[in-house]
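Re: [ENG-882] Designed sequences occasionally contain unexpected residues at chain ends

Forwarding the minimal case from QA. Structure tokens:
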């Protein structure tokens, strides 16, 4: 019975120290009432339990100090971590604010740049349009005043009618100086369409360096056909005219040096002088071009 009581008191000790001390006091009171071997055994058990409690009591403060120190260390680390988190959060907010400001500035600069770019385009377009209008007016003035440079045969009605269609190469009137080609002209007995070619001499042959779009006459007699764009020409260039119909031009023999080819010339193609016919006939046609020469 007493052993069972000791076990019960030890259970109390393991759970609650205050109850354990109360149990030991109660056991000692019992010893005062008991005698014999059982009382001696009970006394030894009480002393053993008391010693164990005292030892545990001696160890408890050290364990408590360690726990307190660890708790304080953890609190310090937690406080430091909180401060770092707050600092990083503040830095993040500042970076977000800086980024927002940079995006705002970027948007403003982009808008200003686009505005200046559009203004520059409008200004250049207006200036270019004005200059083009002035150039066109100047060309019209030169044309109407018969002040453009003319390269070609005399514009008059001639003796014989040319029945063939093909390409006429005017070797009698090469370009005398470099300049800008503006348009073609001729004396036509019938309405027709033609293409003008610029041939550049390469040794004894010719290279087709420019070819006009198809031009259509609007009247018979003298007719001027303006090119859509001005064309640069060099000294020594030769002009060739390709017709898609015959019976549109008159010619004279023995006064010129116009050669004939039944083929249409291709841009970038090489024209062999030996392939051109009519050298012995020395034909002259009422064809030519207007240019502004240096």
């Amino acid at each position: 019975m007493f052993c069972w009581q000791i076990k019960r008191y030890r259970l109390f000790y393991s759970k609650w120290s205050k109850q354990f001390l109360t149990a030991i006091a109660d056991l000692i009171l019992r010893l005062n009432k008991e005698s014999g071997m059982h009382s001696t055994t009970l006394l030894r058990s009480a002393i053993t339990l008391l010693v164990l409690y005292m030892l545990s009591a001696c160890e408890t403060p050290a364990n408590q100090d360690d726990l307190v120190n660890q708790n304080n260390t953890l609190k310090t680390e937690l406080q430091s971590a909180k401060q770092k988190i707050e600092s990083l959060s503040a830095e993040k907010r500042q970076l977000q604010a800086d980024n927002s400001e940079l995006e705002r500035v970027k948007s403003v600069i982009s808008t200003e740049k686009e505005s200046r770019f559009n203004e520059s385009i409008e200004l250049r377009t207006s200036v270019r349009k004005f200059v083009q209008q002035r150039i066109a007016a100047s060309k019209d003035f030169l044309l109407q005043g018969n002040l453009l440079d003319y390269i070609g045969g005399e514009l008059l009605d001639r003796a014989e009618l040319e029945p063939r269609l093909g390409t006429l190469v005017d070797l009698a009137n090469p370009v005398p100086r470099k300049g800008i080609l503006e348009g073609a002209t001729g004396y036509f007995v019938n309405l027709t369409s033609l293409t003008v070619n610029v041939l550049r001499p390469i040794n004894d042959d010719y290279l087709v360096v420019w070819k006009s779009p198809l031009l259509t006459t609007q009247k018979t007699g003298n007719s001027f056909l303006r090119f859509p764009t001005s064309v640069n020409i060099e000294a020594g260039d030769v002009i060739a005219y390709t017709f898609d119909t015959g019976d549109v031009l008159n010619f004279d023999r023995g006064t010129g040096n116009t050669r004939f080819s039944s083929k249409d010339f291709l841009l970038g193609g090489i024209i062999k002088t030996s392939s051109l016919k009519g050298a012995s006939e020395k034909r002259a046609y009422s064809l030519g071009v207007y240019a502004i020469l240096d």
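QA comment: On inspection the terminal residues look reasonable. The first helix runs from residue 2 to 15. Proposing we downgrade this to a documentation issue.
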